[in-house]
């Protein structure tokens, strides 16, 4: 009888714990100063495109105080809980738990609902480059497809801006992905800058280098797209070329089409 009562009590405790931890569903996140859709995506294991779709956004521009729908687990605070214990139980950094809930003090109360960030979330603070440094530090993260510098992000974003201005956001990510795919392909140069500035047969590979548009500043959309591509997002699944569908170049059209977005065509090597 004693063992039976203990077992029932244990099962009741487990049942309450399971009720307090909810499955992944739509939750809300309030934007704070310095946030971007890219950093929020990192926090909740999603991406800018999905956040834009789920919130009916026409661009990646957001503002402090804006409430966004995010998909994440939530946890209902129980008596005796602390932020530290909750973070430890879910295997997430305490700083990420605080950020996911804009919670920078330690005051929580039973019944309060907390967003649980992704355990794989990376730092949302962009790497700082000392003004006296001539070489930007390499950036490594658990999700990065290649090592890159702050200068690489800027250059890639400017190419995206020049090539896909006015195109859907997925096309911008795809342009960035083509550059990353080339860096990773043995048939092309091995750095972002050398890929973008490459000449083949005396011709630049990317027209914005020739016409000077590569020197124009990038929008926040293009910067976010650059970060997504650098961290592995690839709507094309490996494309190495892109071109406007108005081109009459039969060599480009001979390539296998990987993706079409608006008037942009992305294709594989063969």
TrEMBL record:
Organism: Clostridium thailandense
Protein name, UniProt field: LysM peptidoglycan-binding domain-containing protein
Every LysM domain range: 27-70, 73-116
Pfam families cross-referenced by the UniProt entry: Hydrolase_2, LysM
CDD domains: LysM (cd00118)
An MF annotation (GO) of this entry: hydrolase activity
Segment forming the signal sequence: 1-26
Swiss-Prot/TrEMBL keywords: Signal
């Amino acid at each position: 009888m004693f063992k039976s009562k203990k077992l029932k009590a244990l099962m009741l405790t487990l049942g309450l714990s399971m009720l307090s931890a909810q499955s992944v569903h739509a939750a809300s996140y309030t934007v704070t100063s310095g946030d971007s859709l890219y950093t929020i995506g990192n926090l909740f294991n999603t991406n800018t495109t999905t956040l834009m779709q789920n919130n009916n956004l026409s661009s990646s521009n957001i503002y402090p105080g804006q409430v966004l729908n995010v998909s994440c687990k939530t946890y209902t605070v129980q008596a005796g809980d602390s932020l530290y214990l909750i973070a430890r139980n879910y295997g997430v950094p305490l700083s990420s738990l605080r950020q996911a809930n804009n919670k920078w003090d330690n005051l929580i109360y039973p019944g309060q609902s907390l967003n649980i960030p992704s355990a794989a979330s990376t730092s949302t603070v962009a790497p700082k480059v000392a003004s006296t440094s001539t070489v930007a530090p390499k950036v490594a993260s658990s999700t990065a497809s290649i090592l890159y510098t702050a200068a690489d992000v800027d250059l890639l974003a400017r190419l995206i801006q020049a090539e896909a201005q006015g195109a859907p956001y997925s096309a911008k990510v795809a342009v960035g992905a083509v550059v990353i795919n080339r860096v990773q392909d043995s048939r092309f140069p091995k750095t972002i800058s050398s890929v973008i500035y490459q000449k083949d047969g005396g011709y630049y590979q990317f027209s914005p280098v020739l016409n000077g548009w590569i020197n124009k500043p990038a929008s926040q959309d293009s910067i976010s797209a650059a970060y997504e591509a650098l961290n592995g997002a690839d709507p094309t699944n490996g494309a190495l070329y892109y071109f406007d569908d108005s081109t009459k170049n039969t060599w480009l059209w001979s390539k296998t089409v990987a993706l079409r977005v608006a008037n942009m065509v992305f294709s594989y090597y063969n």
